[in-house]
Design goal:
alpha/beta; two-stranded antiparallel sheet; globular; 8 strands; 10 helices; six-stranded parallel β-sheet; 252 residues
């Protein structure tokens, strides 16, 4: 696979809490890109949204980052990155992409070029492509007036690219054809079919926990244990927040 284009997948969202569906998005997307014969996925990044996103019932960022870290204990290629959650304010998705792209460039190993047996100036290794991983529900939000800036949508699909995993009740091909910006760069939007229907909802999990119902097997056991240990999402949890959402809605 040495001739394939290296890719890093970035998922932004609330992860409130992270579920098995969030984790499956990465696995399905990686399989799809590998099967094209063009790409080699070398890493995945989960970036939980900042507390200043002000989404209703949003657990504190340090809890959400900790839960993602626990969920990824068994993954050898996906990691959580707290940078977005640690900023002084909410950060637009395109700016998160820019940050991680610059970090990728900074971390590239330098390969020594050889000239008649002696090392000369370093040659940069192949630059990985950074693609935004999302569900079809996020793709639909691009059509919502005043939610995303047009220049941000263009930069995301033109410079970075999207890997969009289908969800029941959504028509990603229709979303693309209905928006000129997406249609123009459709070659850089990868539509992925989830072979196993997976509609686990973080919203449902929060509601079920608040009602004292079981959510075992919908999210990793370590995450469930953390939720119980820190009394998150229960009906009397004191952390609950409320307020209007910012632009560019984060996934649940």
């Amino acid at each position: 696979m040495k001739s394939r284009i290296p890719v890093v997948l970035l998922a932004c969202g609330s992860f409130n809490p992270i579920t098995n569906m969030h984790l499956r998005l990465f696995e399905v997307a990686r399989d799809h890109l590998h099967q094209t014969g063009l790409y080699q996925v070398i890493g995945g990044i989960i970036s939980p949204v900042n507390d200043n996103y002000k989404k209703k019932d949003l657990a504190a960022a340090h809890h959400r980052v900790a839960m993602v870290h626990l969920a990824l204990q068994t993954s050898d290629w996906i990691r959580v990155d707290p940078w977005e959650s640690e900023q002084a304010q909410w950060t637009e998705t395109v700016k998160v992409l820019r940050h991680h792209h610059s970090e990728l460039l900074r971390s590239l190993p330098q390969e020594e070029a050889l000239d008649q047996g002696r090392a000369v100036s370093p040659v940069p290794a192949a630059v990985p492509e950074l693609k935004l991983l999302c569900g079809a529900d996020v793709l639909k939000t691009f059509q919502t007036p005043n939610l995303w800036k047009n220049e941000h949508i263009q930069e995301i699909v033109e410079k970075f690219g999207l890997v969009c995993v289908g969800r029941a009740g959504h028509d990603p091909k229709g979303y693309i054809s209905g928006l000129p910006i997406l249609q123009r760069y459709r070659h850089n939007i990868h539509l992925v079919k989830e072979p196993v229907k997976n509609e686990i909802s973080a919203t449902y999990i929060r509601r079920a926990l608040g009602q004292g119902q079981s959510v075992k097997y919908l999210l990793p056991d370590a995450v469930l244990a953390y939720i119980k240990d820190h009394d998150l999402y229960s009906s009397d949890s004191s952390w609950k927040g409320s307020g209007p959402q910012n632009d560019e809605g984060a996934a649940s």
